[in-house]
Specification:
By secondary structure, the protein is an all-alpha fold. The chain contains six helices and no strands. The chain is globular. The two termini are 16 Å apart.
Length: 154
């Protein structure tokens, strides 16, 4: 039953993403983020928050890379930016909350994979798609846990 619930939820999340004109692939970023640490609703929100912060860090990095490339060349400027971003992101794993390293990297990957203009609206679009996926992951997880309980109670 878990498989059917997951498949149906994924299909509904994909349809919702299409209806909202959001990238379906970015919805799955949120789905993946949800399942990196399945504990409770609070953890689910934190996972999604890490994805969003990763996207913002990616946005900031994409604004700095051209400046660094102009000053030092791409072969030096890009690795410097990646080094600083990695220091920040890996360092965030020690926080008491918002410490999902995989979530941060999912946000970074989503940002750079999307090839969107470095605008806040672009982050909002990707984050909204990821939120749809995270909610769908939450629904799928919770429904699949409840259905067998109801079936065994009857």
């Amino acid at each position: 039953m878990t498989t059917v619930v997951a498949a149906a939820t994924a299909a509904l999340a994909a349809a919702a993403s299409l209806a909202l004109t959001l990238p379906v692939w970015a919805m799955f970023v949120g789905w993946i983020a949800f399942f990196t640490r399945v504990q409770d609703t609070r953890t689910s929100v934190e996972n999604l928050g890490c994805v969003g912060l990763g996207m913002v860090i990616g946005l900031l990095a994409s604004l700095v890379i051209p400046q660094m490339a102009a000053n030092f060349g791409l072969g030096v400027g890009l690795p410097i930016v990646v080094f600083v971003v990695a220091l920040v992101v890996v360092g965030l794993r020690g926080l008491p909350v918002l410490n999902n390293l995989l979530g941060y990297f999912l946000g970074l990957v989503a940002w750079f994979a999307a090839h969107l203009d470095p605008l806040l609206e672009s982050v909002v679009q990707l984050f909204t798609a990821s939120a749809v996926g995270s909610i769908a992951g939450w629904v799928s997880h919770n429904l699949s846990q409840r259905i067998p309980l109801r079936a065994s109670a009857t």
